Amino acid sequence: MTIDIFMQQVINGISLGSLYALVAIGYTMVYGILRLINFAHGDLLMVAAYAAIYAVTLLSLPWQLSFPLVMVLTGLFGVLLDRVAYKPLRDAPRISLLISAIGASFLLENLAIVIIGGVPKGFPRPDVFAKVIDLWGLRIQVLTIYTPVLTLALLLGLLYIVHRTKVGKAMRAASKDFETTRLMGINLDRIIAVTFFLGSSLAAAGGIMWAMKYPQVNPFMGVIPGLKAFIAAVLGGIGNIVGAVVGGFVLGLGEILIVALFPQMAQYRDAFAFTVLILVLLFRPTGIMGEPITDKT
Amino acid sequence: MNRSTRNILCNILLLAVLTVILFLFEKYGSEYQIRILNNMAIFITLAVSYNLVNGYCGILHLGPNAFITIGAYTSALLTMSPAEKQMSFIIEPLIWPLSVIQVPFAVSLMAGGITATVFAFLISFPVFRVRGDYLAIVTLGFGEVIRVLCNAMQSLTNGPLGLKGLTPYTTLWWSWGVAVFTVVVITQLVNSSYGRAMKAIREDETAAKAMGVDPFRHLLLAFLISAFFSGVAGGLLAHLITTISPTLFTFFLTFNLLIIIVVGGLGSTSGAVIAAALFAWGGEALRVVESPMNFGLFTIPGIPGMRMVLFSIILMVVILFARRGIMGRSELSWDRFFAALRLQSKV
What we know:
- The structure holds 2 protein chains of 2 kinds.
- By secondary structure, chain A is mainly alpha-helical.
- Chain A has 12 helices and 4 strands.
- Chain B has a two-stranded antiparallel sheet with strand order 1-2.
- The radius of gyration of chain B is 21 Å and the shape is globular.
């Protein structure tokens, strides 16, 4: 393999990794506060992708307007999801919460099949992103470069909210100690709603970019990216936002490079993430950047 | 007549009634009815054994589809004749010892169960190092890995083509025999000291440990037994539908089982049996919502996929509003039945 091809694969890996990272952030934030694997989080990718299709084709909005709009709408959808599926179970055993999340995920997927249909839809990718440019002898799609840049921009914005604003302070407090935060007079339901809003908007950004990268939108498109993003969050240390991003990049790069270096392993690509997960949980259960996990229940 | 003899007599009576019903259906029932009854029995086996881990031990294990796959493939590979295998494996020939072996159905079912148990034992070490959500995702991942392996290992599983033209060995007697055996074994286990230890772990693992219960040993036991029955049921399923492929045993199947045990009541064997029977029957009855409906004045076109929407809604409603399901954690028993009768007659 020449150095050129290798660099090309590294860039592809970083691009894929940043998609995982965007989705992983939502998992990690919700897990940090509620100790819940939000199984329906991956399906928000699908919701966002369909919303973007309809915004661009039916409402004929320009993509510059419709993509941010979709992010806001998906964020609100995430809040709704919390209200309907998780809020009534705040005091229930965690297993009920998890089953509710699995139910919500299946409900979204099957509603999409019933309402929209199972046939994959094409994604109206703006031409700006489809252009191929020449970068030091490497031929790269613009999208591949934009994805990590946008991810980093969104990450910086998120870090600002979490570390420099009052809401962010409350979020950090809630992830440390739920009960004490409540005793301090903080409206936890509001904080959780904000968390779901932020996480879901980032998932929407991830979903739109995923749909531009693989322009086939179907009701189950969010399942595998969702699972892998969760693994990325575990890999980075769940509850830690920067960790989720690092985990996403490690997983994305790992997947692409394994296929690039050992082409005969291509069939096993989807098993790679889970093997990594099992190894991480065996030897370093709290991930790369994680603090020791305290069980809240 | 004391209580235990009465209960034994009643159980024998119940079995006799079941035998008569099965006999009548086998003789006079349509193929469709027999198919539903077979499905019902297999779902009862799967749900009751799945409930042992999720309901009685209180750990959320999301990988029964992996064990069903393993059981189905093992059993199918063992009952196919060498000639059939040679015909099926077009892309790559089957590896040596399996390509010449052919065993009777009963032996293949046992082999399916045992292979599933061996796999369960192998993954139990990483699985039980974690608890809660992590355990759920690791077992879910194991199911995915098995699916990927089934697709990739063509010389063992025939890859995406799957195995076709299996002999339909699964009769009502096989499927219901296994179901009854499973229910009896699981009930005996749950009422033994092992079962009490499992429930103790479910309620409070630390306290159970302090009382001298070894969580790993008991969880492992439940996990292995559950995997064994899932494997056997997988073998039955393979020889019922006669064609298996990796896409047949996805997370979808696990999700259905989860609905069954949650609706039946986590930690209740009778609940699991009732819910499994309802599911097998209701799944067919609900086909109505997917077919066009005529209301005289207007017609609703058939909506494919509507059944799964209904199932998801049922699961969510049960977990949100009726968390205990049909049976909660209580069981149907003859003692309660007769006590209820006595109360009735007094009034």
